[in-house]
Amino acid sequence: MVLHTHRSTATPNHRIPAPGQVAFVGAGPGDAELLTLKALRALQGAEVVIHDRLVSSDVLEVINPAARLIDVGKQGFGLSTAQTDINSLIVKHAHAGDRVVRLKGGDCTLFARLDEEIDALEGADLSWTIVPGITAASAAVASIGQSLTCRGRNGSVRFLTGHDTNGFADQDWKAIAHSGEVAAIYMGVKTARLIQGRLLMHGLDPNTPVTIVENASRPHERIIATILSRLPVDLATYCSGGPALTLLGLAPRASSKSLSYTESPKQELA
Q: Could you confirm whether 266 is annotated as catalytic?
């Protein structure tokens, strides 16, 4: 019997690379110490990191120094990288055999277009994994010494977006306007006047507490404690333009180390 063997004539440079690994990672609100251990391992083993605008410099510093960083930041009502281009980048680097991290501020499962990017990978027959992170709402309430839910106050909390691809994102404002409701509103600064108008129209008390936490968990965090009737005015006066989360129905706890800019704007942070 004669056995015939076949030797490939392809050179290493012509090999088809094995598909890379893609991890969707939540970067948390900004403080690198709030990264999960799993997120840190993914970042330190990454070869390509495709990250959002809201990922802090502290988090970027813990990434594998040999990794290629690609900024695909989006800004509400401003310059943004098209979602189709982001999808193509993820697929391209995964097909090239890279260990890819798609790094998103906060929790990658909340208001982060995760499903669209997963659909792109599955359409290209590529696998993926998700590493959740701490969302901005959790960091914001920690900063003001509150909790998102409390027995006798609210048994549920709403996570809302202030705007979407069509502009102002309309919600069930009638339900939200009930006394005692608590809502965490993402991307709500530029639509604050519209949000205020909807809530007042549906009967919410103008004195309802509203707290805006800007740059939650970061060294330059700012807390603006106000009420619904003053929301747009105080935002325009005190907000510096950083990423901000609006907490409807919550005020800073008196004993928390927070600063109410609407009551004493010259006070120093404790």
A: no
